[in-house]
Specification:
7-stranded mixed β-sheet, about 25% strand
Length: about 450
Amino acid sequence: MSTLKSVGQRIQRKDARAKLTGTALYPQDIEMENCVYGATVRSEIPHGYFTLDLTEAEKAPGVIRIFTAADVTGHNVHGVLFKDHEVLCARKVRRVGDPIAFVVAETQAQADDACALVKVSYEALPAVFDPKEAMKEGAPQVHDGKDNLIYHYKCRRGDVTKGFADSAVVIEREYVSPFVDHVFLQPESGLAYMEEDKVIVVASTQYPHFDQIEVAEAIGWELEQVVILNPVVGGAFGGREDISMQIHLALATIALGRPVKTTMAREESFYAHSKRHPVFMRLKVGAAEDGKLLALEAELHGDTGAYASWAINVMRKAGVHITGPYEIENVFVDSYSVYTNNPYAGAMRGFGATQVPVAYEQHMDILAEALGMTPYEIRMKNLFRKGSVTANGQVLTESVPLETCLEILNQAMNGGSEAAGLDAASSGTKAVPGSDSAAVQERSVTEHA
């Protein structure tokens, strides 16, 4: 068999040397002659109508122009799955941090100072911050004329009523996973400039092809007239899949004929980009005396905040994965994506599969305790193996190493895995003098599950 060029080979990353030596160029490292600088005015309330008074800010030192929704030359919308964001809010804000004006000045400091002089008058509206409350009749509508429920995923398998009736133990609990910020090392920064009849936008992004479409639609130009240059990305993890400043920069450089740059401070970055979805999880699981899982019922409410982003994909995957890596014959799952007036949530490492282990793995430990089993034993009883059928009907035919993995982990945490190249020290656990192995095993697996 001929040697493959990439598979199984040690391939050097093209950007490794530049990153190690500090010569890699990030957007904030790039400067151009005759460049001006932008800063964004953002909403300070979660829900309400607003009016702007730009008089004082326009007279501030160095200010060249202040852009508002009226200056958007194409469609004043963008968004990954739904066009529910406004490039610059026209009359209503839906979260703290919504962009309502873009100030351009000769220096970044002047642009930042002028932002503070923009007078924003608010007419606050009732807001909703809990996805379950947001689904109730009469709840404040985040988007006028739209239901707050974006998406409802269902999974139905077998007969959960019978499954619970046949169970020796039924445990029901509620769990919550919180908002999480990506906190990538490089805050958002970008630069835009003109090159003949094209607008060039330089920004660290995960989706340059999506950005090209969204910028073109917002400025009203043909797709081939928009070029997205993606320099080195200083971390992303999903947080750069949504537009941040790209359209603002394009609008400004087209109008002014000068390069326009902006760099967000960390605090603004927190306001600007998406978060990991908080998920409120109610989980009810029944098991037989021998630990076999017989029924699972789950209700998940995903808080996508003011904008949808990837809400459908996230909560569909959450609904799929709430059963964990376990065989369960009877399943009844409802998973919802819901608008609120919270910061908006989107992609972050795992798309819904990351939140739900908070629920199902704690639940397995609780079931084990109720049945007098160890966490290891109850998991080994129910793990997916080759030939297992998931709650969605998928037959697992290959690459299901869970049993082997858990066996090795269990041995490692109990000092008996030298043949596997693991030992208790490498697992971070220590034998407890005078303790029986089952007690140590239960403590170790619980701590590391």
